[in-house]
Amino acid sequence: MDKNFLWGGATASYQCEGAWNVDEKQESMWDHYLHLQELENGDIASDHYHRYEEDIRMMKEGGQTSYRFSLSWPRIIKNREGEVNQKGLDFYHKIIDTCHKYDIEPFVTLYHWDLPQYWEETGGWLNLDVCQAFEHFSEVCFKEFSDKIKFWTTFNEPKWFIVNGYFIGNYPPGLQNVQKTMIAAYHVMYASALSVRAFRAGNYPGQIGVVHSYTPVNGVNDSIETKIAMRYADNYCNNWILDTAAKGEFPIDLVAKLSESYDVSFMEEEHLSIIKQNTVDFIGLNYYARTLVKPYTTGETQLIFNHTGKKGESKVVIKGWFEQVKDPNSEFTAWDTEIYPKGLEDGLIEAYERYQLPIFVTENGVGVREDVTVDCVNDDYRISFMNDHINAIMNAQDAGCDIRGYYTWSPFDLYSWKNGCEKRYGLVAVDFDNNQIRKPKKSYYWFKEIIESQAKLI
Ligand code: BGP
Known about the structure:
The protein is α/β, with parallel strands linked by helices and 458 residues long. 43% of the residues lie in helices and 17% in strands.
């Protein structure tokens, strides 16, 4: 690996900070939704708000060179008038300064799903005004932190929060409406371009990208019907984010297909030209699994997401487009995620060929139940998972891809959306029942060795 290759861990504000109503932080749509439904929530989570110093120090001691985290919009902006909360800014200054103190490169996400509830109440991502509000929030952050930050990203995984929030309905705002899914998706991509435009207009140092939940698409065979299903799946899973952010264009065949059944008049010339002119400098790809598809001809659209950790519950079938199938030869987690490192290698090669932009693997990890009362969790499965995925990255580099970093999800245990804290991803265990005590797992030491051995090869 190049000596500037970044090795680190990724988190999101809602999933780790806790302190949900402290220091004038406003309610986010996730606070509101989970409180209302009386579900396990991130009120305390990993208590990173108070323990960030310990967490960042452990990253350093674990050999890591970068920390990817998100800025909480409702912590920084108090209301729809855009008033700034100095205490929120102060908190992120402390995080960033601690990173620098330990020689850790901060890698910032502007939006990791915690929309302020005061905006959700006006329609959230269905309201065009929220795009301008996001532009304003971005500008506040650029002005405040840009002299300390080299890497910015606008959105984390537009596909995931839009599809789950507006199409499947398992995330807030809990809608199941295709027309609204399209509008929200379009507004998010437009807001991303507005943020990139503000970044360029301010001549800030550093680079700006977008982070995508990448599921490269494979077909069950080589038939023409399967190839058509693969194209539908690729448009649905990947292209509407990556083509739009990296090339400035929504996939033309996707728009044509949707316009047969839905109203696409919200796509205005002025927005499209802003999207075209404000493409990203790099791509962040979060990789958990691929999408294996077969053609789908009969029956109804059905999208079921596994939040119980009981194998076999999930289903993705889009009528007339594709059906996601399970490879009988693959291993799956209890939450139905296929373990398929080859998908990362193939996917990186494909994404680099298509977009010719530097790539960071901004998330990769495996979520499992673990007993964290032991001294050191023996997570050999995580070691083997990370080992195989890091090898996949090296293979893609050997094939000529420009890959600049690897972030494990996650450097320490945190709250998993709708799954609660029992679905653990961390290299450091957090005992949620015992004062959020931290204890490194076996994978933490293993990752340190990998990073150090790479450094020696340079
Ligand atoms: C990504 C998100 C993360 C994280 C991760 C694991 O999609 O960017 O926020 O949660 O997936 O997913 P989950 O917590 O649902 O298992």
